[in-house]
Amino acid sequence: MTAGTKLAAARLAEIVGDSNFFADPARLAEYEIDGIRPSAAVRPGSSEEVADVVKFAAAEKLAVIASGARTKLGIGLPPRSYDLALDLTRLDRVISYDPGDLTLSVEAGISLRKLAGVLGERGQFLPLAVPFFGRATIGGTVASGVNSPLRQFYGTARDYILGMQFVTGEGTLAKSGGRVVKNVTGYDIHKLMIGALGTLGVVTKVNFRTFPLPVGSRAFVANFETAERALEMRARVAQSPLTPITMEVLSPGVAGLFYSDAAAGIEAKPFATKIITNKTWAFSAGFAGTEKVLDRCEAEARAIAGQCGAVGVTALAADHIPGAFGRKREFIPIALDSSPAATILKISVLPSKLKDVLAETGAAAESDSLRWAAMARGIGVAYVALLPESKTDSSRAQVARAADRIQAACARLEGHATIPWCPTEWKPSLKIWGLERADLPQMRKVKAVFDPNGVLSPGRFVGGL
Question: How far apart (Å, rounded) are the C-alpha atoms in residues 455 and 57?
């Protein structure tokens, strides 16, 4: 350790306390990203400490990557440099909560599960039912931009985040938005932080609008012989008076994932047998309301399913809803555990073009004999899992060909496809952030404003930002 390194370590330990600074290689291995290990890690206990750490890092030109439970560090490109891991898990407080006003302010390191418990005691919740729910934190969920099955009804996090506190790349503590709806005025600068992987700022506090828990719920599944018929039901439900809180179309390959040991290990709640099969496409929807409302929703959904040629319809009993919903929420980790080289694509197209993109996806995977599964949400976002049997060069080439074909098809359909998860060593062969974007010059300008020294998560975002 050089004299300069010792001085830097001493200053960081001074900011966060000796017990919250460490440079032990074994412990630093927990913070590796794509095989790259930081030189040190710190665990600040307040927003002010985060700002002091980033300000020091900027002065010393140290690359900083913030994280929480580290469930989504695989998203994005390998960091260009990585000197300091900024662990935010000590920032885990509920700052304020007004159930009557449906508003909440929390620190970024609080876990989704802990927060669900706090809100549940008052009959409320946040619709952040995202993958890795059992461990994920608010900050990581916001920074990664991963969405939820509940997006169908409640929208994405940007629809119910009222304000945010974050630290810029210069170590400045900044605020945007407010704590209640009526105070949210001006530019929604904080929305730039959503999905930016910490490249523009380190999120330290988030203000949310909360929602009442539904008084009751019911799940509905209809199986079809073809994707076209399942997607026709999606379109008819979307045009009907029904307002499902979740709506997905599942490919036949999903059955193999949801009934696997991997799924049972991730979501232990029971999943009734034969709800979906490996020979049919499934339309799945969830409804909320009173028993009278739910009975009407089920009757109308059954009628639509019959009109679309369903070969099997199931309304899930209350004790089977958590297991079914949990598997939809955890589709990504289940897929990642189901193949030694699982590669996940996130596709965004207009709902009317889901049929074409799913047809192209199936053709691309099957032409290379790749096992695959797709979960397409009703709003036009689809997650596709390519599941090779090995991590060989041959498998890499198969996946690269299929991914390129799918991404090209999305572009033709005026959509976009990225690859949030794949083996680290395959990233140079794949278009992780999709095809080249026309707005990249504007993105570079925004990066220069928020992080002029390029110390925050360098290289991980679109275009190597």
Answer: 7
* 3-state secondary structure at position 12: helix
Is residue 246 within 8 A of residue 149, CB to CB? The reply is yes
Q: What is the DSSP letter of 424?
A: G
The domains found in the chain, sorted by start residue, are: 3-89+452-464 (3.30.43.10), 94-212 (3.30.465.10), 217-332 (3.30.70.3450), 339-429 (3.30.70.260)
Q: How far apart are CA 64 and CA 79, in angstroms?
A: 10
Beta bridge partners of 189: none
Amino acid at position 198, single letter = G
Instruction: Please give the span between the terminal C-alpha atoms of the chain, in angstroms, as a whole number.
Output: 30
Max Cα distance, the chain (Å): 76
Cα–Cα distances in angstroms (integers) from residue 1 to residues 5, 37, 39, 63, 190, in the given order: 6, 16, 11, 18, 39
Instruction: Tell me the C-alpha to C-alpha distance, in Å, between residue 132 and each of 1, 70, 146, 333.
Output: 37, 10, 10, 7
CA distances from 38 to 242, 245, 297 (A): 51, 42, 53
CA angle 176–180–184, rounded 5-degree value: 45
pLDDT band with cut points at 50, 70 and 90 for residue 270 = confident
- Going from the C-alpha of 65 to that of each of 9, 68, 239, 277, 291, the distances in angstroms are 17, 10, 44, 42, 48
Asked which of 180-194, 221-235, 313-327 is least confident by mean pLDDT, the reply is 180-194
pLDDT digits (tens, 9 = 90+) for 405-431: 999 999 999 999 999 999 999 999 999
- Rounded to two decimals, the pTM is 0.93
pLDDT tens-place string over residues 38-84: 999 999 999 999 999 999 999 999 999 999 999 999 999 999 999 99
Taking CA atoms, 330 is separated from 210, 255, 375, in Å, by 22, 14, 11
Name the nearest CA neighbour of 166 among 176, 156, 177, 157.
Answer: 176
pLDDT reported for residue 134: 93
Question: What's the order of all strands across the beta sheet hosting 21-22?
Answer: 21-22, 40-42, 84-87, 64-67
Res 185 pLDDT > 60:
no
Q: String of b and e for 75-108 (b: at least 16 CB within 10 Å)? A: bbbebeebbbbbbbbbbbeeeebeeeebbbbbbb
Question: Which residues on neighbouring strands pair with residue 214, listed in sequence order?
Answer: none
- The number of beta carbons lying within 10 Å of the beta carbon of residue 235 is 16
What pLDDT does 188 receive?
80
Cβ neighbors of 462 (< 8 A, separation 6 or more) are: 433, 437, 440, 443
